[in-house]
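The passage that follows is intended for readers who have already worked through the single-chain material. We present the inputs for a multi-component assembly, then the predicted structure in tokenized form, and finally a short commentary. You are encouraged to pause after the input and sketch how you expect the pieces to fit together before reading on.
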Amino acid sequence: MVKHVDAIIVGAGWAGSIMAKELTEAGLSVVMLERGPERTTPVEGAYPDSIDELRGAIRKRLFQNLSQSTVTIRNTMDQTALPYRQLAAFLPGEGVGGAGLHWSGVHFRVAPEDLRLRSAVIERYGEKFIPEGMNLQDYGVTYDELEPFFDKAEKVFGTSGEAYRVQGKIVGDGNVFSPDRSDNFPLPAMKDTFSASVFRDAAKNAGYHPYALPAANASRQYTNTYGCQMGPCNFCGYCSGYDCYLYSKASPNVNILPVLRQDPGFSLIADAHVLRVDLDSTKTKATGVTYLDTKTRKEISLSADLVILGAFQFNNVHLMLVSGIGKPYDPVSNTGTVGRNFVYQTITSSRVWLPPSTYTNQFVGAGGAGVAIDDFNSMNFDHGPLGFVGGSPVWVNQAGVKPIAAALGAGGGGTPRWGSAYKDSLVNTYKHSLGIDAHGSNMAYRDVYLDLDPTWKDAYGQPLLRMTFTWKDNDIRMNQYVVSKIEPIARAMGATKMNLVHLNAGQPFDTRTYQTTHLGGGAIMGDNPQTSAINRYLQSWDVSNVFVIGSNAFPQGMGYNPTGMVAALAYWAAHHIRATYLKSPGPMVKA
Amino acid sequence: MPPMEPTLNNPFRRSVVKGLLGTTSFWMASGNARWAEALAAEAAQPYRPVFFDAAEYQFLESACERLFPADHNGPGARALGVAEFLDRQMQTPYARGENWYMSGPFEQGPANLGYQLPFIPKDLYRKGIAGVEHYARQQYGKGFVALSAMQQDEILTALEGGSVQLGDIPGRVFFEQLRTNTLEGAFADPLYGGNRGLGGWVMLGFPGARADFMDWVNQEGASYPIGPVSISGETA
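Having made your guess, compare it with the prediction:
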């Protein structure tokens, strides 16, 4: 007898935890399956073990264990994709909390025009402006529709920030390019680190519009809408790659699960690797899921009326492909949708050295804190003469630089990577420099996509997901343009030296160095089932009792960090499931 | 805590013992003077490598010191205990490749698609050290340890540059593995056997496990005034 519940949720990160909370509130019985281990702040997050750099970010304690499953990667369709054997370019999470436990905490909304980027580009520059082979698409949902859910998420995450405009009134020194808000941030902005304050002054003097990054790092004590408590952040510097010992960085573990775990309608099963979503013979209805208990190595099937995929972006796509949900994307015939519009972000980090009398104390920081400008993000500047689509915020986001990471990254680019001269530059760089990032968008292309690898398999005998990805001319030129804007700001900061880093023409994607974990697309939302895998409510066009929640829904990679958008989309989908779907299950949008 | 063999060599235990030896409560609580004396004696002994043999260990002492030499900035790899760190790391899941995808087939491809060899870190060290020794004898007629610093640097430069193959292993792969783990050993918490006396952290001005900068978010570019502390409570 297969056990039956109302809803199964795959993945215990932000997307899964938000959906689980909403569906238990609606009275459903919910089982959340997490393939990694249980994780709680008092155990794994306890000081001082939680701030051990070797054990943490270096030995990758909270990240996906590639020995069990990974992806293969190639740059172009004529290559053989090879396994991503060692974590480097991107770091998906594993265990309760998912990547939401080890993230930094930069908590953006969205630039409204990014949600309708195809329409916005055509309105301003005409359809011919879009390069051949670029799959530029709208999300099918607007900022105004999502606004209440951005607001709701911020009040759950305890987000610190400075608003610009609330209900049509300018209220503060926030981001002038940001859209209207129904309410202020629940907490005041995080303080500027010294490095961020230098950037703020220089950017302002250059005529730009600096603002405090919105951070899901609590600037003060906070009790969220669920009654979960956060303590004030002390800028210890252990956000990115770590679990926060102070309960200051928002995570599913701190901000949702303490309450959800008390709900009798909810159960969380860790060490449960979902192998597939089970479908009926018509392939239009999910009957439940089958998972492997990785401790007992037993396969277990659970039956449910509703299946929510809330795993990491590419794991959602993988589950759809191995389960037969929707039609796999084929770039040659340009048909199918699952795997289409796989996107990343175009991120480069430049470095600025201040005089030797000035100490940047880079170990001081918070993952979400910093100062940014949006003058070159989204549609905030004239792309006409530039001839590319997309943009980048530019920021100083001093998240706390630890010594091993600093040492591994020092040298190179023509300077020694070992020996005494290397030590000179390492010490000087650690004490007196700061980083400035161009954190940019990445567009979707017909020949950049996800599918199943023909050769390599995971520990459970399933084919690995295959990524076909490289940098394209549009995004390289965007990155070069934005990085060129950093130079005068750096000069105004009093730079004694700078190392401006940008992508170069023809440079292929390199899997060996960390860039970002902000992967997106592959099962995107939209208003047309020929070009999107899920509808505007994140419901599968093909299997209507499956919803796919995550950055997999993004048709393009945006300049902003994705978690705020993922959280808002989760609350948006949950709202419509509760308001409409549960009353009358079935497709919510006519195909 | 990371997985570690229950040995008296455990540096965490050593530093705890060192820290406690001077306290009355330790002597009162221990109740076994002989045990306490044995631990104190142990703490003073040099580290005995478990994974590497004596020759391999000497190679690491020499090679790591060239990568991270003692100089005007501060101590080098030898003084920081990097070889001890490496030997301890060889006894962890990391060295057994337990977090790497190690399923075949192993096909080689463009460098930007990443590591594609069938070797775990333990293999890379065993084969890599043997390969460098062989190369040193071929080029200079002596083992690596017996060479001058300049000659050792020439070998390391050749490995880094990618012109040397060490049997099954490209010299560059071994070089990167050694460089990475050497720098880890210089800057990880002393809990793992390296960064002795917090010398790596002092050099950088990194305050270690303090992890509280409430008052130091912005001090207008002043240098942070407090020295480092380790996870076990050791200070520089």
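Commentary: The CA atoms of residues 213 and 370 of chain A lie 5 Å apart. The first strand of chain A starts at residue 3 and ends at 10. How closely did your sketch match?
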